[in-house]
Design a protein that fits this description.
This protein is mainly α. It contains 4 helices and no strands.
Amino acid sequence: MAPYRARLERIFNEITDVSGNPDVKGIGRMGEVNKRIDEVKDILAEMPLRLSQIEERLERDPDFSSISRKRRLVALAEYLRVVIGLIDRELGPQGGHMIVGANDD
């Protein structure tokens, strides 16, 4: 999952400024925004961790059909935050403790 996370994080860093807000000035044309959206969809389709609900929401989200470049970037950044967070939870160490035996006093 690490290579997918790295690719998604790279896209996130390309479309946001240092504070995590959409970098509308850095992404100059709508075609560039659409390219990033398509790239994220391709990565999600390739991932072994199936995020079908995220993929479906990406397809139906009205923000991605908006004519506003900023609105599309905001939506894409939010989806990337969610997906990266889900990957981090999947990759992280499994928490909790196993109880081997109980004391039945």
